[in-house]
Design a protein that fits this description.
By secondary structure, the chain is of the alpha+beta class. It has a domain of 123 residues: Histidine kinase-like ATPase, C-terminal domain (Heat Shock Protein 90, 2-Layer Sandwich), CATH 3.30.565.10. The chain contains 29 helices and seven strands. It has a five-stranded mixed sheet, with helices on one face. Strand 6 and strand 7 form a beta hairpin. Helix 6 runs antiparallel to helix 7 and helix 11 runs parallel beside helix 13. The longest helix has 42 residues. 40% of the residues are buried. The N terminus is likely disordered.
Amino acid sequence: MKNHLTWFILTVCLIALLLNCREDSGDKNLLSRTPVFDTASINAVNRYALEIVRKEPDSTIFFANRTHRQSVSLGYRTGIGEAYYLKGIAYFYKYQYDSAINLYKKAYAIFSEENNRYGMARVLYSMSYNYSLTHDMQKSLECMQNARKLFEEDNNISRVYECLEGLIYVHKQLHEEKAVDSLISELIIIAEKTGDSKKLANSYFTLGNYYFNQAYLKLAIEAFYKALQMAEESGDPVEIANAVGSVGRANLYMGEYQSAIDYYKRQEVILKKLNNVYELSITYTDLGEAYNALKDYGTGLSYHLMAYDIRRKMNFQLAISNSLHNIGNTYFLMEDSNDLALDYTNQSLEINREINNYEGLAKNYMLMGKIHRLKRNISASISYLEQSLALARQYNMPDVIMESSGVLSHLYARKNNFRQAITCMEIYNEISDSIASGENYKRITQLEMQNAFDKKQNEVEMAHREEKIEYETELRRNKLVRNYSLLLGLLVISFGIYMFYNYRRSRKANKEKEALLKEIHHRVKNNLMVVSSLLNLQSGSITDDKTKSAVKESQSRVKSMALIHQLLYQSEMFTSIDFAKYLKQLMSSLQNTYSHPGKNITYSIRADNIRLDIDTAIPLGLITNELATNAYKYAFVDSAKGKIEIDFCKTTDHKYLLRILDNGKGLPQGFEPDNSTTLGLKLVKILSKQIKATFKYRVNNGTEFNIVFSEIT
């Protein structure tokens, strides 16, 4: 009964408002007979206009103009401010962001004059999101912080919670992860204070998303399950749908595509009952991506088309553009539908141009470049990819930068434009460096690359069983590639040492050249990483496991050299490096390279704070790389877990000890490292002689290697 009465009052207010519109006819007598709104009626109409603003922004503008006139006639300042605020939101949903900002500023000025703190805070909150979409993140941050402060002063905990969500979003865009971490902790505390089970579930949902973006997928799933449990206890279908979909998304990134599909279909059932068509379109998009990952492109395409149909009816231009891009990408994956792929991608591109969605444009240009590459239109492909790379670098899109620069490097190499190819490879490596320093994107990319690599290995093994004759031919070719790769690696190492020694003499002769030497270390390191990347690319075409392993070992040796130069150019002392720090970074790299599912191989390092001259550090680093690599590869073949220990200390005034031991199966009976013909142990013996070190070993519940050497003077 109460609901019927509310709608009756609202209907009367709307009829009166529509009748009042006839004042535009200029008939003063009719205007005098038009009912005059009171403040309660104006507020009721404004509330209704706010409810429909997302779906019908033009209708909201119509009603807000009328309540604005009535508020002026009554001198109702709060009503005028609300009208400006409503029109600002409406123009926001019409993608006219400048107009929205101007209206928000008018609303804020009026609310400020009236000391309407709640109105001021709401305007600032909306302005923050408006600024974020125009990529003015500093103004967005300032508005959201001020909104939070006003809500806190009024003790409006529920709206403080919403501001924290907004601040988390802004700091993510600014890549300020420490701030995000702190805000998420606050979010959970505030959610508990509200006593709202929905907000508490949503806070764990946000925590899960944070872990997910950091690629801590197990922690993410734990948080999502906690959110799901709370949502199920409260019976809130919206939060249940969010949590179920998030678990599906985590499974999608882990490569568990069928599990992801099962969760998404459960989410689909809930969203259909809720009639939440927009969220349903997101679920259909995720289902399309999962089926594409399974190479079931027909099913993937059907889900992307369903998402597009929903968004087209909603007239949500940004979402429509995303769906068109996804459809174009699916046709591209089919490989025989390039014209359709171009058509849909062009439609997406046109919309993104209209709404100034530069991130969407960067992805459009990248896909256009890939399609033209498949059509062998190399010049067009390069043009689109260059545009994609420029936008991606301007708006900080690491995934697009990496993919665009990587493809461009290949294309320029094919056109024999090696200068541009190297430039693009350096851009690729620059992003890799920043990712290696801790950016969130690295871990997700590594997971994707590992999954792709594992799938490729399975395909290669199947091909070996089906085509034995071709395998024998490939084996002979791969032996040549292996020998070439090893020779190339040795040449690069020799070149790096030669370059370093030359510039080291120059630095000793003139201290003013230290800045130049730092740049040289950086360039040598980058060149070594380029070689490492080339070896990695080469390994993609190698089908023989032994050859691939040899190339991988060469890549590891090059990386150990590059790490020395990286530490040098990052240090203020160019004559020596902190070897303990080097050991930690080297072992972390080897752990990532040689860890396997089902194996729990750990390592520990006990190292004194000792700095080594470069003449000692390079050989000793390569020795450590060889012995630790051998331990990872051979010591724990028959066991699921194990440990590698490294000790580095000064034994006397002029003597140092490097001990590398493991608790693995030990050396084979009768095995003598001094008589070994393997390249790795040969290098260890050669390098030990180079630094005048004694090299000893023993087998006792594992293998222990001891290298004792003196300071090089």
